[in-house]
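Proteins fold reproducibly. Next comes a concrete instance:

***
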Amino acid sequence: MTAPARLPVEGPLPALDGATAWLNSAPLTPAGLRGTVAVVQFCTFSCINWLRTVPYVRAWAEKYRDDGVTVIGVHSPEFPFEHDEQEVRSALEGMGIRYPVAIDDDFAIWRAFDNAYWPALYFVDVEGRVRHHHFGEEDYERSERVIQHLLRESGVGDVDEGLVSVTPDGVHLAADWADLRTPETYTGYARATGFAGPGGLRLDRRSVYVAAERLRRNDWALVGDWTVRARATTLDEPGGRIVHRFHGRDLNLVLAPGAEGPVRFRVRIDGGLPDDARGLDVDEQGEGSVVRPRLYQLVRQRQPIADRTVEITFADAGVEAYVFTFG
C-alpha cells in the first residue's frame, strides 16, 4: 500500500496552547513546528485501542526523528484518575514514550481539533497544514507511507521507504478481530450495557447484588455490596465479584485501587483456574493485585476461542471498576 500521489489539505494545524502541562518537551506551537513534519496522536493511558498503537507510533518517532519528524502525543483523559499528571507520567515512561506529550486535561486541544476519538492520528506538513488523519487502530502501513510522502514533499532526500519492524506483545498485541464478538462493556451507569443481574442496576446508592441465574454471551453481573455511579462501580465490602460472559481472546478490565491501598483479586474462568488462559496481570493461581489505576489484562485465551465466563472476586473493599475491553 502506498500513499496517494497527492494528499488533500484538511486545514491548518490547530493551536496547542490549551495544554495544562507538557511532558518530555517545552510547550510546542504551530509556529514553532513550521519546517517539520508533525504527527499528532490523541490518547488516554488506560485505553486498549490506543495501547495497541503504541509500538508503531513509538517506532515512527525513533525512525524519522533525524529526518525532521516530530511526534506529539495529546493526552485527553477519559477517566478521573487519568487527570493525575504523575499517573500519566509514570504510565507513559513505563511504555518508553519519550516524544513530547501535551496534557490536555481541559480538552482544549481536543476541541481545537474537533476530535472525537481515542486514538486519533493527524499528519501535518512542513507548512503547518493537516494533510491526512486516521481514527482508531490499524492502517499502520498507510500511516507510515503518509509520513514518508510528506518528508519527500518537503525536499528530504533518501527517505527510507521500508516500514518499521514491530513485534507487539502483551497488551500491545493486536486484537483477534476475526474471533472477537464482545464489545467494550462499561460498568458505570452512564454507558453501561448488558447488565443481567436480578433487579437491574441501583444508581448512586450502596446495594447488595445477588448472582444472576444465567448469563448469555455479553451479559455481566455483580455479586456483593457495590455502589454503581455514572463513571465507575465501587466495591463497599470485601468479597464482591464481577462476572462476565464473553467471547474473545483477551479480557481486560480498567481498575483503580481504593483509598486504603492495593486490592487483591482472584480470577476464575468457567469456575476453574485460568491455567494457560491467564492474562499478564494474573499468576498461576489466578491471583493478582490492583496497585495503580490502569488497564489489567485478566484473560488471554489460546485457540480455539469459545464463550467463557470470567469471575473476578476482590478480597479487599474500595476497588473501582470502569470498563471491560476485549481483544
